[in-house]
Design brief:
Structural class: alpha/beta
Strand order of the largest sheet: 7-6-5-8-9
Number of domains: 4
Number of strands: 9
Number of helices: 17
Distance between the termini: 40 Å
Strand content: 5-15%
Oligomer: single chain
Helix content: 40-55%
Shape: elongated
Radius of gyration: 32 Å
Length: about 450
């Protein structure tokens, strides 16, 4: 489920940066994924690179496969990628040359590769057959003390020829032509198809997440009733969507489909990341906030600490008090000091300043509410304005439990009610007899003593 679902209705598909998967390696591959997603990265990479050759990084010529017409058109459309040059020996002014009249002209052919820490001639990489340092994708030019060789290269006949070939192809590609018009139309058609399919997949994922529907079933075969909500919804939409139906019909085992559970996990993570970023930005805009954390073991017997932030959100002149769930934190601590350290670390990771915290809300456990060693005390040491507010409902419930337990008659009274419930609920025939008399019994609750009154009245 997407984290922060209380705000998911505010999140629309248009906010997702869906671009051409063929031309940008950073659209769907996020190298800063959480540990469970990173393990699946290699599997996801195989699926999301559709038209783009595998493992290509535009500013790293070493990753380029053998250049054919199709790849050449894609590279020309993208253009030379100069990457980032911070804290490098490469100087930015080397991208320009001075003419005899003193005018500076950009060397548009030159690209800087950060992974190689070298420069390359873009047009010679695309069209050159004889390798020099600037046109060798495995080497590049990095002799920073001999930059005069740049002028020698750009004045060479081979470079001038390849530069003209590059500009002619670029002009054709940008105008819809190319080396082969049919090839260009094929590329454009594939782009539009994958954008269309991707939009439907993300819409289905958003729908399932918004309605808390499990994605997968017992089968990954589209059309199988046991395939789960995701694939069944895809199958349903394909009945009225020709592009999606053709995509499903042409799908073969081992080919790219975007339907596997690996890509579902990747998309869910990216969607949740967007939702979480939006919530955190709202919290930062509000500035002041209250933190609410609570620990509970999950089915795998691991302690999970839920993170909820309370803040004031103002939108279109309307003031709303929001309580947004940001996720679970795997907790390894039991002491107040250890839990406080985990909370502070999480707030720091979310770029939320603890000095802007104006409230704390936990249960009444000693490790959370302890006056001297509890979490609230440790947070107060960091920020004295983070006032602790104990859970009043929890406090009232504890008072009720202790008050009732201290009176033998009350304890026996509710014990008899529980015995009656056990007697009737233990047999379907006895329960039917009770229903025929239009009477209802409810089970005893250790933690919700306010419900005991309604239990008694319903008898």
């Amino acid at each position: 489920m997407i984290e922060g679902t209380s705000n998911i209705n505010e999140f629309s598909f248009q906010e997702i940066p869906v671009e051409t998967v063929e031309l940008d390696e950073n659209i769907l591959v996020d190298h800063d994924l959480s540990h469970n997603i990173v393990e699946k990265q290699s599997l996801v990479d195989e699926e999301i690179n559709v038209l783009k050759p595998p493992e290509i990084i535009f500013n790293n010529p070493q990753s380029w496969p053998t250049i054919n017409d199709k790849l050449r058109c894609i590279l020309v459309q993208h253009g030379p990628d100069r990457g980032k040059m911070e804290h490098k020996p490469f100087k930015n002014h080397w991208f320009y040359k001075k003419l005899p009249n003193g005018e500076s002209v950009e060397r548009s052919w030159m690209m800087y590769s950060q992974p190689n820490d070298a420069i390359f001639c873009f047009c010679c990489l695309l069209f050159g057959k004889q390798f020099t340092a600037l046109s060798d994708p495995k080497r590049g030019f990095s002799c920073w003390k001999k930059m005069e060789r740049l002028k020698e290269h750009e004045d060479s006949q081979d470079h001038i020829k390849h530069f003209l070939e590059w500009k002619m192809l670029e002009n054709k590609v940008m105008k819809g032509g190319g080396i082969d018009d049919s090839l260009q139309k094929e590329i454009k058609s594939e782009q539009e198809k994958w954008r269309h399919v991707l939009k439907i997949i993300l819409d289905v994922l958003l729908y399932c997440a918004n309605n808390n529907l499990a994605l997968r079933g017992n089968s990954e075969e589209i059309g199988n009733p046991a395939a789960g909500h995701f694939l069944n919804l895809i199958s349903l939409i394909s009945k009225s969507d020709l592009v999606l139906r053709q995509h499903i019909e042409s799908h073969k085992k081992g080919s790219v489909s975007y339907f596997s559970h690996h890509i579902q996990d990747e998309f869910i993570y990216l969607l949740s990341k967007k939702v979480r970023e939006k919530i955190i930005n709202q919290i930062k805009s509000a500035k002041y906030f209250t933190i609410m954390f609570d620990c509970t073991p999950d089915v795998s017997k691991r302690e999970q600490m839920s993170q909820v932030i309370r803040y004031v959100h103002i939108s279109n002149g309307k003031v709303c008090i929001e309580e947004s769930f940001l996720g679970f934190i795997l907790s390894h601590e039991k002491t107040g000091e250890g839990l406080a350290s985990e909370i502070l670390t999480q707030l720091s990771d979310d770029d939320l300043n603890i000095q802007n915290c104006r409230g704390q809300a936990y249960d009444n456990g000693a490790n959370m509410a302890g006056k001297y060693k509890g979490v609230q005390a440790k947070i107060m040491e960091k920020n004295s304005l983070a006032t602790f507010i104990p859970c009043t409902a929890h406090s009232l419930n504890l008072a009720g439990v202790n008050a009732a337990s201290s009176n033998v008659q009350i304890k026996n009274f509710f014990g008899k009610i529980q015995q009656l419930f056990n007697f009737f609920s233990g047999s379907p025939s006895r329960w039917e007899e009770l229903k025929s008399l239009k009477l209802t019994l409810k089970p005893f609750s250790d933690t919700r003593w306010s419900k005991l009154i309604s239990n008694e009245l319903s008898c």
